[in-house]
Design a protein that fits this description.
globular
Length: about 120
Amino acid sequence: MDLLKEYRDRRSAQNQKVIDNADKVVKRIYSLDTITYNEGALDAKTKEMIGLTTSLVLRCDDCVKYHLEKCVELGYTKEQIVEGMAVGNVVGGTIVIPHLRRAVEYLEALFEEKENS
């Protein structure tokens, strides 16, 4: 199955299951997560890069994929994203390298999709 489609379909289905079963606390966490990335003193683009780099340091592959999608959507170049991830790798150390590998693979697929659309 296509790398991008697999992630997107799985994330969507899992989010729907969570929301269908969520209590007030979980719904508020989801809401807080959404509004965190709205424009404020920092623009949404900057916040997404922060989300990407911190997700890489925390070694959350699903989070990295999500923020990669948003960074591409908001207009970052491939080079800018890779440079941002390099910062995350330095902060997180060598344990982040396997996650960086998967991130770069996903990033390439995103830019391939962008070129073909």
